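User: Hi! I'm a student and our assignment asks us to look at how structure tokens line up with a sequence. Could you show me two examples?

Assistant: Happy to help. In each example below, the sequence comes first and the structure tokens follow. Example one:
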Amino acid sequence: MRNMLATFKSFRRFAAAAIIAVGVAGISANAKANDMLRVGKSVPEPFSFTPLDIGMQKGFFKKYGLDIQETAFGGDAKLQQAMAADSIDVGLGSGPAMAFIAKGSPVKAIAAMAGPPLLLAIVVRPDGPKTVADLKGKKVSVSTAGSLTYFLVSETSRSQGWGPNGIDIEPMGAMAGQIAALKRGDIGGVIMDVGNAFELEKKGEGRILVRFTQMKDFIIHVIYATDKDIASKPDDLRNFLKGWFETIAFMRAHKAETVKIAGPITGKDEDITSRSYDEIMPMFSDNGKFSQTALEGLSRSWIELGMLKEPPDLKTLYTEQFLPK
């Protein structure tokens, strides 16, 4: 009898241990369920890149089995360099930076993220140039050469009939340094996101001189993926875009919560973040499809601005295979 009782107790201990082991294995399996995707922003500050953070906070990427590792860079050129070095998988950058692909960058655009360049403005000192014509020959700072900001200042010069170099474009990196240079009078203007522009106006330290609202058929932002990830992680890319566009839909339907989350990310107060929301949300795409007219316009501009010597084959620059159906 004692032997039977001992055997029964041993069996119970074994069964309990087995149940615990199965439970631990189940927890481990669940912990490994999410894939890690390294996502980079070309610049850290603008409201237009906050969907990544909002999607992470609201769980839209986790819903599709993804954990996001976020990094921010100092412009499109640095973002493209990071992708070429396999430091990130997905990049949130500019439409004009698609020219890097034509130059051999090992990436493709996988979604048209936003259209008209409603995000940006050229800002001058309160006592600075009064009209666009006054910018001729003036120094205007941008983030990096080949960036969206560089492209738009060149386009401003070209549209005034001065060619791409009628404005002296100064790549200066971080926005804080550019604003300091503007305040000192070292430069005549800065192209920046409207959140920073609204903040400088509110403080009486700057004045918006140029907006780009007239550029209707444009692609300001693109989501990129490396060729390596396109080949090896197609499901992750599809799931990332599902999470992204669910985030955009959430942002459209929930302004107050969006502003609350976005404010600390952009470093702006509620009033400026709310104003930025109203200005910028209309430019976001709901489906990621590429406008052929906008792509052709970018291609022509690349030639006119000297970024490329001849028009590229546009079909080699992007793919729509990962867009949600």
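Example two works the same way, sequence first and then tokens:
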Amino acid sequence: MKKIILLFLTISLMNCSSDNTTQSTNQIIVDEPIEMVSELNKWYQNGSSEWLNGATATIETTRRYLLYFYEGDTLINGLQYKKMYYKQLDSIFNQPFSGGSNQFISTFNDLKYISAMRQDSDLVYNIFRNQNTEELYADFNINLGDILNYRWNGNDETVTEIDSIEIGSKYITRYKLSNNQYFYEGIGASYGLFKDWSVGIEGGEYLSCFKYDTDKIGIEEGFNSPINYCPEY
């Protein structure tokens, strides 16, 4: 009988140990930061631009949807990168300058490779297509009061507040800047992947949604872009 009880206790302890290990492992997975260079990530940029065609006395409006994603690897100068592509969908309309309704003209679809990107701890690097020189995209080791080390931070904006936002079972750190715009852990700038925080005179497309695996989150700070709009096409 003692042997049976001892065996039962041993199995129970092993099960408890196994449960604790599983819980600990799950906790680590939940707490891991979202890496920017991952095929789990997608960025959705949407918006519109207008220009006056003097020859036809019409205002041409382009409604644009861009989807950025990684697919596959490449080796450059002995280092491994993820290949980033974008899909573009443009719907183009004309409106008489004197007034009237928009008239649909055409739709433009495109798929292009844009950049090779890699991540080394908190540092993200990229090499644009037709280039072979690596640049620092961003340093995600960010603290309060730091000047944001981001390729398009031309005005040396500093970090004034730090909080977090939820996406699925994870949290993304959000950094408010001295220009009242935002930078996100694993996502980048609130206006888009390769943009600063300036607004074009004729408009443009801006980040509205980020998708991590199956979870989506709206980027409310994007300029003139539908919030939480993640079109698949």
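Here is something you could point out in your write-up. Residues 5 and 221 are 62 Å apart (CA to CA).
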